[in-house]
Amino acid sequence: VFNADGTDIANDATVDILSKMAVLHAQTGVDVVSPSDMMDGRIGKFQDTAILSYTAKYNSAYYGPFRDAVGSAKAAGTRTLGKETYQMNPANRKEAMTEMMLDHEEGADILMVKPAGAYLDIISDLSEHSDIPIAAYQVSGEYSQIHAASQLGWLDLEKTRDESL
Questions:
Q1: Cβ(22)–Cβ(92) under 8 Å?
Q2: Please, which residues bridge with residue 102 across strands?
């Protein structure tokens, strides 16, 4: 949901819609919801199911292959769907700790970091300061690197793929 002038995401209106969707998912028997929206206050609004929170979802170049595949507007050069307004700045390490505390207080059952490989320090920080499980999400760009290196003969695809997970 965009704000009135169409330049940004309307946080509260989006959270309201996502909350209704999470309840519907729970009513159909879903065991875990994992909202990837990064809207402030969303975790506290979801009810009736376990929550895997995208605690630290970075505005990352590693999403490139996925964004290209789905033809996102940002990949096409327009500003309509820019992610920088609601995904985390990769240079802001402290924000992950703030988000972790907020998600934990709001009732998250699992905290996730996306992408995973470039943010092992963040995963370690969250694990040291939280008593709930931490999940790591390997994204398309991370996986594509493994494939590209294997095509060049630099890595064994199967062994490197399995080790990276």
A1: no
A2: none
Write the pLDDT tens digit of every residue in 142-165: 999 999 999 999 999 999 999 998
* Dihedral, 61, 36, 53, 10 alpha carbons, nearest 10: 110
What are the tens digits of pLDDT across the range 72-95?
A: 655 445 555 566 666 888 888 899
- Residue 58's Cβ-side half-sphere holds a number of Cα atoms within 13 Å equal to 27
* Coil, helix or strand at residue 28: coil
Catalytic residues, by residue number, are 57, 114
Please name the residue ranges forming H helices in the chain.
11-27, 42-45, 64-70, 93-106, 120-129, 140-151, 157-164
51 pLDDT higher than 60: yes
Burial of 29 from C-beta contacts in 10 A (0-12 / 13-18 / 19+): exposed
Q: Is the pTM of this model over 0.70?
A: yes
Helices 93-106 and 120-129: crossing angle in degrees, nearest 10, is 40
Beta carbons of 148 and 71 less than 8 angstroms apart: no
The answer to whether 87 and 58 are in contact (CB under 8 A) is yes
